[in-house]
């Protein structure tokens, strides 16, 4: 303890205060009074606390946790700096409280429930995502991401890449009079290729979900079509990466202008993937040729495939025929989302006929596909015979009153459908009311069946 700054007043006893033992007057004894009224021997820190403070202040250069008492270890982890290099803390610190402090210090919004309730998983996934999203080809050094992989690999289970930046172009912008269509039709020069995933996915042994968009967020007034260009080289490298990532289960490539040619390249590498259970190509430019490739994928070429989303594309009747044929052969798919395409009645009827043979699909979404009464007529037969479907979305189609009556007729003998979306279909109030009564009965029966199953 440093006492050099303390000053003392010495009070001497009076001349008459002599003698020893009980003859001394305590009020007249020699006393030492500190000028600091708060000074006390109690503030002298314990040697253990001094040692712990030294460990905390020098943790970056000399990390010590092993051998500490559990209570002392908690004290250290509660106070060490969140800016200590990851090379020190990544594999050494497992305490969730420390990684919670790191997350809150770095990001304003932290929803740990998205990351399985693990703050450490959240930190390393978001850290790696930011490195990739801010990577500028030709400008950012490859070592920036390469150095982070050994630190993150054990804790990354999902990646959500919301943007990929293109290389910085030194060439002047094209003439402002060029149309948007013209600006989108440029050649795929290598200079526009994005971050190369290469073997990144393969080096993440616990990665199960991968979501990526080849575009730029918040570009504002700097908008150019070239910022949203998924090149052929991007496509090929990504396809090879996913093929080598055998442990991947869920794949989503969205808002990337994936067209027929590119989706065929991607799917040619996914065929026979051992673990893929969900594939999402939503918000792209996939047409009938691409739908035929998707049909080939559905046709039992991915043994564990359970869900396919291709909503908001340009699939028409010919593409619907390919997907319908695959449904007649498939025995694993449980969910199919074709919302916001252009199937029409020809495509809708083909899909419904396939459902007369398929007995595994549980969820079907064909909302906003220009379906009308002819599709409802065949769908009525599906509702009467199919025993696997539990959810169907027909919203945004002009089913009409007659189509609504046919759906009502099919639902009267249905025992499995618990969700049927008929918003904006003009199916008629009477039919919708009767259908809702059947849905309520099916929901109650399903709930009772689940309760009975849980008691066994």
Question: Can you tell me about this structure?
Answer:
With 456 residues, this protein is of the alpha/beta class. It folds into four domains: 1-77, no CATH class; 82-168 and 192-257, no CATH class; 261-347, Ribonuclease Inhibitor (Leucine-rich repeat, LRR (right-handed beta-alpha superhelix)); 371-456, Alpha-Beta Horseshoe (Leucine-rich repeat, LRR (right-handed beta-alpha superhelix)). Helix content is 39%, strand content 8%. It is built from 15 helices and eleven strands. It has helices at 47-57, 70-79, 86-89, 96-106, 119-133, 143-152, 180-183, 232-244, 260-270, 288-298, 317-329, 344-355, 373-385, 400-411, 429-455; strands at 8-11, 31-34, 158-161, 209-212, 250-253, 278-280, 307-309, 335-337, 363-365, 391-393, 419-421. Strands 3-4-5-6-7-8-9-10-11 form a nine-stranded parallel β-sheet. Strands 1-2 form a two-stranded antiparallel ribbon. Strand 3 (158-161), helix 7 (180-183) and strand 4 (209-212) form a beta-alpha-beta unit. Helix 10 packs parallel to helix 11. The N and C termini lie far apart (69 Å).
Largest beta sheet, briefly?
A: 9 strands, parallel
Strand sequence of the main sheet, in spatial order?
3-4-5-6-7-8-9-10-11
Number of domains: 4
- Beta-strand content: 5-15%
What global shape is seen?
A: elongated
Following the backbone from N to C, one meets helices and strands in this order, namely: EEHHHHHHEHEHEHEHEHEHEHEHEH
Separate helix tally: 15
- Secondary structure: helix percent: 25-40%
As residue ranges, the low-confidence spans are: 1-11, 172-190
* Multimerization status: single chain
Q: What is the gyration radius calculated from CA atoms? A: 34 Å
Mean pLDDT: 87
Structural class given helices, strands, pairing? alpha/beta
């Amino acid at each position: 303890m440093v006492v050099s700054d303390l000053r003392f007043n010495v009070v001497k006893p009076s001349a008459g205060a002599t003698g020893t033992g009980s003859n001394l007057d305590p009020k007249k004894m020699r006393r030492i009074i500190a000028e600091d009224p708060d000074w006390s021997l109690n503030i002298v820190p314990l040697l253990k606390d001094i040692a712990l403070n030294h460990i905390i202040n020098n943790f970056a250069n000399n990390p010590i946790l092993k051998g500490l008492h559990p209570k002392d270890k908690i004290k250290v982890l509660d106070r060490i700096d969140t800016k200590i290099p990851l090379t020190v803390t990544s594999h050494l610190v497992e305490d969730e409280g420390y990684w919670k402090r790191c997350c809150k210090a770095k990001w304003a919004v932290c929803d740990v429930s998205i990351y399985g309730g693990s703050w450490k998983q959240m930190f390393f996934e978001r850290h790696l995502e930011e490195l990739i999203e801010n990577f500028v080809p030709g400008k950012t050094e490859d070592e920036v991401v390469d150095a982070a992989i050994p630190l993150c690999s054990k804790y990354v289970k999902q990646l959500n890449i919301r943007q990929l930046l293109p290389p910085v172009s030194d060439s002047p912008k094209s003439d402002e009079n060029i149309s948007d269509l013209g600006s989108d039709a440029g050649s795929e020069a290598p200079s526009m290729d994005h971050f190369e995933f290469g073997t990144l996915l393969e080096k993440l042994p616990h990665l199960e979900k991968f979501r990526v968009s080849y575009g730029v967020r918040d570009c504002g007034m700097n908008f150019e079509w070239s910022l949203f260009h998924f090149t052929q080289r991007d496509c090929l490298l990504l396809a090879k990466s996913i093929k080598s990532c055998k442990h991947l289960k869920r794949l989503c490539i969205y808002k990337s202008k994936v067209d027929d040619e590119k989706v065929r390249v991607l799917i040619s590498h996914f065929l026979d993937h051992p673990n893929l259970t969900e594939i999402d190509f939503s918000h792209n430019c996939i047409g009938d040729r691409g739908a035929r490739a998707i049909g080939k994928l559905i046709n039992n070429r991915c043994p564990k495939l359970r869900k396919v989303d291709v909503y908001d594309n340009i699939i028409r009747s010919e593409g619907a025929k390919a997907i319908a044929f695959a449904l007649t052969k498939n025995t694993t798919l449980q969910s199919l989302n074709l919302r916001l395409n252009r199937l029409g009645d020809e495509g809708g009827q083909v899909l419904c006929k396939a459902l007369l043979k398929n007995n595994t699909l549980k969820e079907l979404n064909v909302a906003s596909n220009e379906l009308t009464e002819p599709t409802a007529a065949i769908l009525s037969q599906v509702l009467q015979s199919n025993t696997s479907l539990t959810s169907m979305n027909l919203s945004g189609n002009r089913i009409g009153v007659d189509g609504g009556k046919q759906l009502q007729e099919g639902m009267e003998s249905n025992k499995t459908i618990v969700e049927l979306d008929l918003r904006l279909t003009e199916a008629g109030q009477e039919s919708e009311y009767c259908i809702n009564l059947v849905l309520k009965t099916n929901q109650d029966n399903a709930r009772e069946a689940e309760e009975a199953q849980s008691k066994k």
